[in-house]
Write a structure and sequence with these properties.
The complex is a heterodimer.
Chain A: E1 4-7, E2 10-13, E3 19-25, E4 31-38, E5 42-51, E6 54-57, E7 65-66, E8 76-78, E9 87-94, E10 102-103, E11 107-111
Parallel strand pairs in A: 2-11
Antiparallel strand pairs in A: 1-3, 3-8, 4-5, 4-9, 5-6, 7-8, 9-10, 9-11
Chain B: E1 4-7, E2 10-14, E3 19-25, E4 32-38, E5 45-51, E6 56-59, E7 62-67, E8 72-77, E9 86-92, E10 102-103, E11 107-112
Parallel strand pairs in B: 2-11
Antiparallel strand pairs in B: 1-3, 3-8, 4-5, 4-9, 6-7, 7-8, 9-10, 9-11
The chains are: A mainly beta, B mainly beta.
Chain lengths: ~110, ~110
């Protein structure tokens, strides 16, 4: 089944403890990206990647890192999480520009 | 910076009535305009999209119109049903010199039975 898989679905952590949210897609998509969803603010893009080893900042990249070492994987790294990064995170992929995004099921992160 | 404005933020309609959601974008370089539906607790899923060489697209009860001159596009849902209740997001892509997607802030649609 074609899908985007995110893990974990729920994560509670403490300020400053490094964490990684994994994202994997099995559709051979070129484009992958991360979003955070907060009430009243919609979906805001954190980082995106056009291909392996090619990443760029979205609108809210501060406090996040990503890597694209393989086409299928695009992990989101929070080196030192803070409470303002408490949010619902979505990974998404698409074949390329001007194509629909396929979203993962989301990761709800709470930083205390 | 680039942005997409979406209105209204909430919309209640009676079952069977039509619903219209409007979006305005700022970057004239954008040429792809998708709409996503997000049911409670679930991921956003594409319901319809339009590209800048097309003015209107229809899929059963859902239609999208695009006015590139005015830089706005709209989602039209006819004969609404309770299962249409969800949050709807518009988006515009790409933005000048980048490959960003910019989303609107969402519209919560309630269809009253």
């Amino acid at each position: 089944e074609a899908q985007v898989t995110q893990n974990p679905r729920y994560l509670i952590t403490v300020t400053g403890k490094k964490l990684t949210v994994t994202c994997s897609q099995n559709m051979n998509h070129e484009y992958m990206s991360w979003y955070r969803q907060d009430p009243g603010l919609g979906l805001r893009q954190i980082y995106y990647s056009m291909n392996v080893e090619v990443t760029d900042k979205g609108d809210v990249p501060e406090g996040y890192k990503v890597s694209r070492k393989e086409k299928r994987n695009f992990p989101l790294i929070l080196e030192s999480p803070s409470p303002n990064q408490t949010s619902l995170y979505f990974c998404a992929s698409s074949p390329g520009l001007n194509s629909p995004l396929h979203f993962g099921n989301g990761t709800r992160l709470t930083v205390t | 910076g680039e942005n997409v404005e979406q209105h209204p933020s909430t919309l209640s309609v009676q079952e069977g009535d039509s619903a219209v959601i409007k979006c305005t974008y700022s970057d004239s370089a954008s040429n792809y305009f998708p709409w996503y539906k997000q049911e409670l607790g679930k991921r956003p899923q594409l319901i319809i999209d339009i590209r800048s060489n097309v003015g209107e697209k229809k899929d059963q009860r859902i239609a999208v119109t695009l006015n590139k001159t005015a830089k706005h596009f709209s989602l039209h849902i006819t004969e609404t049903q309770p299962e249409d209740s969800a949050v709807y997001f518009c988006a515009a892509s790409p933005t000048s010199g980048t490959y960003k997607y910019i989303f609107g802030t969402g519209t919560r649609l309630k269809v009253l039975a």
